[in-house]
């Protein structure tokens, strides 16, 4: 899928998640805790972890992952150059389909970077 408007896409996705959350509260609470703890700084800082998550989102071809992790990478100070290198690693690991999703990830990054 190609996302034309990342802000609108994430807003729609937020709405869909909000609709789903009450039906599986325990699962979503647990997932939130996993996410919080996975991104918390440790041996790797949060920015590096978000770049890893972005690269995995590219290789896994997850549109929502691209938007949320591009936005979070910006929050933690990721530069366009760092995002480009993460895209390069995703392409190495995911081949041709990751080239296409890498371009989408860069689009998401550029969209949210312009918000700052």
From TrEMBL:
Which Gene Ontology molecular function entries are recorded, alphabetically?
peroxiredoxin activity
Highest taxon listed in the record's lineage = Bacteria
A Pfam family reported for this protein in Swiss-Prot or TrEMBL: CMD
Q: Where is the Carboxymuconolactone decarboxylase-like domain?
A: 27-106
- Protein name (database record): Carboxymuconolactone decarboxylase
Q: Look up and give the organism this protein is from.
A: Pseudovibrio exalbescens
Under SUPFAM superfamilies, the record lists: AhpD-like
